[in-house]
Amino acid sequence: MLRLPTRCLVVLIGPSSAGKSTWAAQHFRPEQVVASDDLRAAVGESRHDQRSGKDAFDLLERIVAARLGRRLLTVVDTMGLQADRRAAWVQQAHHHRMPAIAVVFDTPAAEVRSRNAARTPRIPAGGLSRQIRTAEVTTDDLLLSEGFDRVVRADAAVVVPPEVLDAPSLRQRQTEEPVTMRFGLQLPRFDPDPADLAGHLRDVARAAEDAGFDSLWVMDHMMQIPQVGREWEDMLESWSTLSWLAGVTERIRLGTLVTGITYRNPAHLAKVIATVDVLSGGRAIAGLGAAWFEREHEAYGWGFPEVADRYARLRDALQLLPLMWGPGSPRFDGETITVPEAICYPRPLQEKLPILLGGSGERTTLRLVAEHADACNLFGDPETVARKLEVLRGHCADVDRPFEEIEVTTLGTVLAAPDADTLAGRVAELTRPDRAPESTAESVGAGTIEDQIGRFRAYADVGVDTAIINLPITTPARVAELAPLVAAFA
Known about the structure:
Blueprint: E1 2-5, E2 9-13, H1 20-27, E3 33-35, H2 36-43, H3 53-69, E4 74-77, H4 83-95, E5 100-104, H5 109-117, H6 125-137, H7 140-145, E6 150-153, E7 157-160, H8 167-176, E8 182-187, H9 194-211, E9 215-218, H10 238-248, E10 253-256, E11 259-260, H11 266-279, E12 284-289, H12 294-300, H13 307-325, E13 332-333, E14 338-339, E15 355-358, H14 365-372, E16 375-378, H15 382-398, E17 407-413, E18 415-417, H16 420-430, H17 437-443, E19 446-448, H18 449-461, E20 466-470, H19 476-480, H20 483-488
Helix pairs in contact: 2-3, 8-18, 10-11, 11-13, 14-15
């Protein structure tokens, strides 16, 4: 199976009658294929009007350039035998940060001639022979020297998001050399009618617990954020929600991803978190962040300090919370807050209630993780996460702290399904009329359960301890379907 990323250039290479157009029609939507024959029909009298060839190729070049400029999957269906044209397409693709893939059609010459003989009109024998000879000397090495990222043979093809492009080999590695990793489930939306929310949350949380998820997370926002939905959508207060979830679950850890440090007095926040920890039997996780959603602050009448001031408040909280949760009632004098008595009874049941710090800023946030936090939450593909972790290692060395003490978590969206057909249907359900299914699949991390196993093995390989995921549509059934993914890393 030939796996192609959702954003790439595909150049078909082979003589006439090699099967290029048939293959393209089987594996791609018509709007993704830029075919010289179709453009001859558009600017000439028919698909076979050779007199319109120059105008057709001029139009082809403009269409290819426009599609690559928008980073759209583009399949160039010509003979692909002109080196200068190929090199120009590859250069354009790379300029727009897209891989260029050459798909070679090694159809035997006798079969090509037989097919041509059945065509109407036929390619003249001499011209077809020249095409066959040119195709034979267009070697893989030549194509790679022109800049193609991959040279492959025509085969059954599937278009997948970049996150799962190499999933089959990674999944096989997980089968043969398994590693462990925990999974968390984030709930970024509260779609059911408010009267049904309590029951819905209970059922989702129990499904997550039954599926083997280690942790359950909610965002700490007072209104929906633009990355997820519209601001008037329902949004539950985070720590109240976690209190409810504590009462309907038994094992799963409960946390915010993450609590904005500007929303509450830090001492009061320490009391809130300690309460959830006690009532949950010691399952709370204190997710903290510097806050970023200015619109939310405006709506609620809160001040929105400058970045430096928010980080100063965060730094204070990182030092104050452990004091509040410890013995006695010591005084705390920070940069932004003074607490005459850091008193909190009952104290958390956990001897060390973990603090997770959200954000990937290399100079400030990751430094604070090294100095004060028990966990970090990073964004990006495995390569990006690996780079961030190297920075964090450096900060840990600077403050003489073992890097291994810090739990590494990531956050990403997952649309999963047991099989490819079900997955395609789910992607179609989410795809707006103005978008392509591939764009939707990319935005929601679409892949079969097997693909997702490979995807997350790549994160485990760079040092991620816990993968926190959210679902575009969260139902108990959809959560239960993820049990094999979680089990693969148990």
